[in-house]
Amino acid sequence: MTTSFETVTSADGTPIAFDRTGEGTPVILVGGAFNDRTTVAGLAATLSPEHTVIAYDRRGRGESGAGAVYSVEREVEDLAALIEHVGGSAAVFGHSSGAVLGLEAAARGVAMTKLAVYEPPYVVDDSRERPAADLFDRVRALIADGDRDGAAELFLVEGTATPEEVVKGMRNDPFWAWFTGLAHTLPYDLALCGPGNVLPADRLAKISVPTLVIDGGESDAWMRAGTRAVADTVPGARYATVAGQDHGVLHQPDTLRELLTGFLG
């Protein structure tokens, strides 16, 4: 299966880079924090026998531009530009904060045929402490000071509830450079999720596109609770669990194949 590299220009003039793989009805893959188009490439390959799959660099990542000023609206426009580029309508799959972006776009009426989301990171119960309202400002300040390590660590510990000792071990891994390389985009993910990662029930209730909401059977309790809450809030949404998987499901994309191809049709 061949993959072609392309770009599309978003509404504010920012170039958005993407890889196109496969043939069939289009599906756009939206990665979350610390992700670019390469981290969803495995899922693109998994879905490409039945679909034209678009794996893109969200703005500020990879080969996409950053634009002059970030806002959630700009990211929604990026997704809308991709959909328009592939024919005016497409299915969307989003992972983590990418799932939040997909939900926001659907709530704002972006033309999509179906929406599948994996573990949008809303906090809806007391199984973890809610991220502080000023986390966005503190992460952005560390980035402005050039402290990418500190920004990545703060995001992981307070934003994703990753234990500090785990993050300290991660900092000794060569892969840590990947995290710091994308640290400047973490405020984008925090802006998408909003202060405290509060479930935006009023907006989600406006979604009319057929929606599949997925979690992993081995994921943290707070992520599973938030996922279930999304399924309960989006009108007519279907809820499904991938047994044996957690938030890192993109490392094993074949586990999503049957579920997604069945839903996308």
Structural notes for this entry:
The structure is a single chain. The chain is α/β, with parallel strands linked by helices and 265 residues long. It has two domains: 3-125 and 198-264, 3-Layer(aba) Sandwich (Rossmann fold), CATH 3.40.50.1820; 135-191, no CATH class. The chain has helices at residues 41-47, 72-85, 97-107, 135-144, 148-159, 164-170, 176-181, 186-193, 201-204, 221-233, 254-264; strands spanning 3-9, 15-21, 25-30, 51-56, 90-95, 112-118, 211-216, 238-242. The chain has an eight-stranded mixed beta sheet, with helices on both faces.
Main sheet: strand order: 1-2-4-3-5-6-7-8
So, CATH architecture of the largest domain? 3-Layer(aba) Sandwich
CATH topology-level name of the largest domain: Rossmann fold
Would you state the CATH class of the largest domain?
Answer: Alpha Beta
Percent strand equals: 15-25%
* Total number of helices: 11
Q: Helices and strands: which structural class?
A: alpha/beta
The profile of the biggest β sheet is:
8 strands, mixed
**Runs with pLDDT <50, length 5+?**
none
The 3D shape can be described as: globular
Number of strands: 8
Helix content: 25-40%
Order of helices and strands: EEEHEHEHEHHHHHHEHEH
Give the end-to-end Cα distance, rounded to a whole number of Å. 20 Å
Domain AB hydrolase-1: 28-257
Protein name: AB hydrolase-1 domain-containing protein
GO biological process, one term: glycerolipid catabolic process
Pfam families: Abhydrolase_6
Topology (SSEs and partners):
Elements (H helix, E strand, L loop, with lengths): L2 E7 L5 E7 L3 E6 L10 H7 L3 E6 L15 H14 L4 E6 L1 H11 L4 E7 L16 H10 L3 H12 L4 H7 L5 H6 L4 H8 L7 H4 L6 E6 L4 H13 L4 E5 L11 H11 L1
Parallel strand pairs: 3-4, 3-5, 5-6, 6-7, 7-8
Antiparallel strand pairs: 1-2, 2-4
Helix pairs in contact: 1-11, 2-3, 3-8, 4-5, 4-8
